[in-house]
Fold this protein.
Amino acid sequence: MSDLKKIGILGSGIMGSGLAEVAARAGYTAIVRSRSQDAADAMVAAMVKGLAKQVERGKLAEDERDAIVGRVSATSNLGDLVDCDLIIESVVEDLDVKKTLFSELDTVVKPTAILATNTSTLPVIELAMATSRPDQVCGVHFFNPAPAMKLVEIVRPLTASDDTIAAATAFAVACGKDAVEVKDQAGFIVNALLFPYLNNAVRMSEVGVASIADIDTAMKGGCNFPMGPFALLDLVGLDTSLAILDALYAEFRDPNYAAVPTLRRMVAAGRLGRKTGQGFFDYAR
Ligand SMILES: NC(=O)c1ccc[n+]([C@@H]2O[C@H](COP(=O)([O-])OP(=O)(O)OC[C@H]3O[C@@H](n4cnc5c(N)ncnc54)[C@H](O)[C@@H]3O)[C@@H](O)[C@H]2O)c1
């Protein structure tokens, strides 16, 4: 099913910008909404810069780059999403913020629009029930960086219709991704399995078993992982990682999901990983 044409994206952070690029590359018109026009414009400017680098490296033709850029616009006005067929919410991992946004969105966009969330762990049903169209709400969980990562988890809350799940799956496939369907349960497939590992890596460094650099080296060389747990936490963002662990713990009460103190302290200190230039490792900004 490919009668979705215009995609709205809420949030201009790491994932919002990646989603805009993915949708535009696949030929969809994409409009990104951020709370401030400056942030939305900065996101598009960063995307244009990234695409220019790909042109320089010979990985993207200039006319293709121009076509992708021409399909992306930015706004701070939620009302500009009125004619979108699919809206993907990708703002901060906070249930109350997302619920408020879903109920607001529901009053603004056309009745046929599908409302999706890119949440990593939060209950999609709560977002569905914040709208008047719970049958048209689902999760489309892309991975970071969205243009490069192959997987999308299509999350089915109890209320979603088969048409909604089919349309979201078709969208993911049209974006060149592998789609898997999963029940609306915290962490879905990947994060439910991944985060105990990441959390336990931090615990291992807390008790002094090995340095963070050596733990990363060990997991890359010993398991053939492309990056170690600390580099991955920095990439995901430590605030997002903490929110994911808290949501997993709230759902399952499994000690493996109880965020270790170091992670919480680093978030309190504003060391959020790559996006702030400092996390477990330092990044030149
Ligand atoms: N970072 C990852 O690896 C990753 C991967 C998959 C999914 N996700 C999910 O994507 C979503 C966004 O994560 P991100 O990594 O892009 O985060 P980010 O911190 O890079 O961006 C968060 C965005 O939310 C906006 N925001 C913050 N508070 C807000 C509010 N009160 N109202 C409206 N907007 C607000 C910010 O302005 C920013 O645009 C989260 O649900 C996260 O769980 C993240």
Q: What stands out?
A: The chain is about 45% helix and 15% strand. The chain has a mean pLDDT of 96. The radius of gyration is 19 Å. The CA atoms of residues 1 and 170 lie 6 Å apart.
